Amino acid sequence: MFANISRWAVRLVITLSLTVTAVIIAVGVILSLPDWRLREHVSALISRAVGVQKQPETAADSQWDTPAGRELVAANSQHFYIMLPVAKCFPDVDLLARPVPTAIASRFLFGLQPDGSHSWDTAPMPDPAVKFDLNNFQNYVLYLSDNVSWAQVQAAARLAQSRSRRNLAEWAIVIIGALTTIFISVKAMANERTPAYEVIGVCAIIFSALGTAVASLNAFYSPSDAYVRNTTSLAQLHQLHVDLGHYVVSLGPEVCNPMDAANAQDAKTKATKEFVTRFTGIVGPSGNSAAQPGGGVATTSDGNVSTSKSAK
To answer: Per the confidence metrics, is the pTM higher than 0.85?
Structure first.
């Protein structure tokens, strides 16, 4: 009789343990999902509950409803405010015109997209006779701002990914540790070597080894450190973009004059080099691996800036 009660008690404990573990895993997975995915799932559940059919989003729309997409909206806004002082140098250039003339959009780097390309509503120049040429300083500032914007997008995407991995690793350690403790405790309380006793003993060994393996992998890949690095990188890129905007605005009419790239003591030349040094220090030693797909900021012999970037 007591043996039957003991077996039922062991089964009850195992069932309760697995149920609690399943609940914890579900909560952990939900908390580890990126915010945009969690909102999407919750919104879908509510829509089905009230009988409202949500219009399906296109692939392009879904890219904007992500941490990287929302970061890109802020980066494009900052880039626009850097374009405004430059546009004042050209009376015939209207940045608010819709659709944006192709010559303006391509040179001012309008419409950075989540995939790294540029897209805008095409339209011919209002007057083909209008002379519109950016000088080397203006090119430098606009291309640097565009590089910083793309680096912000990539940093935001890495931050969201590292946050999810960090949460998953921490929840895995907690769950496996809890299961190991439960199995060891139940095994210690058992008085007879029943089949259930042997199963619990094997589970205790397996989860103990699994806990050690997960802890070792967590220490090796260190998702918490990656999360801190990505948070710091994104904050530094934010500050760099703001500082670049403040610098361009503070120049006033001087923004219309080119810089003397051959003169290392030229104020604009020194300032732009300092900004590029800060940028390369944030994104990596090479300065272009995280900046743009296929290229970064590079100066030519005349002080202009070259970069590779696709446009739609």
So the answer is: no
